[in-house]
Amino acid sequence: MKKTLLAAALTVGFFGVAQAETSVTLYGIIDTGIGYNKVEVGDTDAKKVGLINGVQSGSRWGLKGTEDLGDGLQAVFQLENGFDSSTGYGAQDDRMFGRHATIGLQGDSWGRLDLGRQTNIASKYFADVASPFGASFGQANVGATFGSSNTVRWDNMVMYQTPNFSGFQFGVGYSFNTNGAQEWDVDGIEEDNDKGVTTGLRYANGPIGAALTYDQVKNDTVDEKVKQWNLGLSYDFEIVKLHAGFGQTRDGWIGGYSYGIAGAPTGTMYESGRDANLYTVGLSAPLGAGKIMASWAMADFDDNNGVDYEKQNIYSLGYTYALSKRTNVYAYGSYAKDLYGIDDTKSTAVGVGVRHQF
Question: Which of 28, 244, 296, 330 shows the greatest Cβ crowding within 10 Å of its Cβ?
């Protein structure tokens, strides 16, 4: 009897050690609703009423884990798949792990190093500081104006982030090719790789939030380079939280121009002389078990190549209500005028939905 109890105790003990050294977590989000979207381009318009997916948070499932290597060092990995919950199809061009796919090392004293497909620093540091919508809620998200923070994901990325020092954290990353496999560098022929640099500094302590980021993508084959910097600030007064952001994009739009519907104008990421100053202000306030959010964002484009561009303005309002710690409902509306500076181009988006996290 004593031997049986001892064996059981040792088994439990070994299991506890294994759990302490290695952990793997399955997680996910399902976000689905009903919405209306109308886009007007001059005399042409397109509209759609039906299910909307991933409005507050992109629907996903993922695995992340750590292994304790000793002396404060850990191996870390994260694999994240995105999908459309209204159809079951994969997102991010139907990649297996299109949202995230990294392996790396981290230590409490020196920071974290990740290798693989991941979001850039502006999406990590700037979005939630500059806008109450962060990088969420479709057209309302701050990335519709500040393109480099529109949940930009780059392949072939090496990224380092420091530990948090009294609220400060610094990050820097480099992508050998932001989209797809890295091309070969053949003698006498420039490789066709979009090389990306992303870096930034953020501060979060008490009611204050701040972020400064810089992103650049360069292609040697076409001899083009697009760059953007952003500055975001927030202050939480408890009864209301204020957000503000300013930035500039030069020689294009990181991520490219897209109206999100078939037949609507689109553009490439690079466009020499296509510059804009970017602005946003917003606020959020608790309301019962929920939160109300409002924002205004503007892209003030410079005229270029004989084209007189207008100012893009986006006005957005939203509300979330928590049904539990893991489930909430939401509603939002957003109106955009003169998208990407093109006169008489408008977009209206409204929707309600439910989000569950597991």
Answer: 330
